[in-house]
Amino acid sequence: MASDRRYPPGDATELEACDHRLALLEDRRDIEDAKLRFVESFDKATNGSSEFAASDFPIADTFSWTGEQFGIYEEVNGLNRLVTQFRDAFDMSLQYLSLVNIVIEPGRLAASGTWLVWHPLAIRGEPWILAGRYHDGFIRYNTTWLVSSVRLELELLVPWRTGWAAERFSDSWKWPPNVNL
Fold first, then answer.
1. Do you know which SUPFAM superfamilies this protein is assigned to (predicted)?
2. Does residue 64 sit within a domain?
């Protein structure tokens, strides 16, 4: 029976390979955590339950947020403007992320991540569904992964009560009281 091992037991190369794989797994976890903190902070601030603070999560000095339908917002000041505009227009925001794909560059100094986003929201009291993909960039600063870019690729933005959304979702979906149903 042939061994599936690439290296002899105890070989230094095998240990280095294991250490490298473990470091990549830890990087992936840290990148996912940075993205989740970003989304959670964004939702909380949009919902008005807290002030948005870029310090709530690590972002790079050169940070940019891009959404074709929403514009381009750069650095911390731009991100604060985006949240203010969303807070003025959105009464409720709750982003769901799934199917993450993170690619860490050789050298572990940069990474990219893609997430599917499913985003029930209320725009001026009316319920909507947004769906699409986030394409994010990350850079490593010392031992911390910083969000360097977020690009929203919008696939779907439809009213909840008509058309596509009305045909596919149950009337039992519970919206907050401030959403007109």
1. NTF2-like
2. yes
Rounded to whole angstroms, the Cα distance separating 90 from 52 reads 15
Q: Which residue has the tokens 């010392």?
A: 142
Q: Quick check: 2 pLDDT over 60? A: no
Has residue 96 been placed in a domain?
yes
Closest to 111 in 3D by CA, of 100, 97, 99, 98: 100
Which residue range(s) make up the domain with 37? 12-168
State how many domains the chain has.
Answer: 1
The alpha carbon torsion through 14, 15, 16, 18 (nearest 10 deg) reads 90
Rounded percentage of the chain residues whose pLDDT exceeds 70: 78
> Cβ atoms within 10 A of the Cβ of 41, count?
19
Please name every residue paired with 159 in a beta bridge, in sequence order, or none if there are none.
Answer: 128
Q: Which tens digit of pLDDT belongs to each residue from 59-83? A: 898 999 999 888 898 987 888 888 8
For 64, the token pair is: 């940019």
> Over the stretch 139-170, which tens digit does the pLDDT of each residue have?
999 999 999 999 999 998 888 877 666 666 66
Give, as one character, the DSSP assignment of residue 161.
Answer: S
**What CATH number is attached to the domain comprising 39?**
3.10.450.50
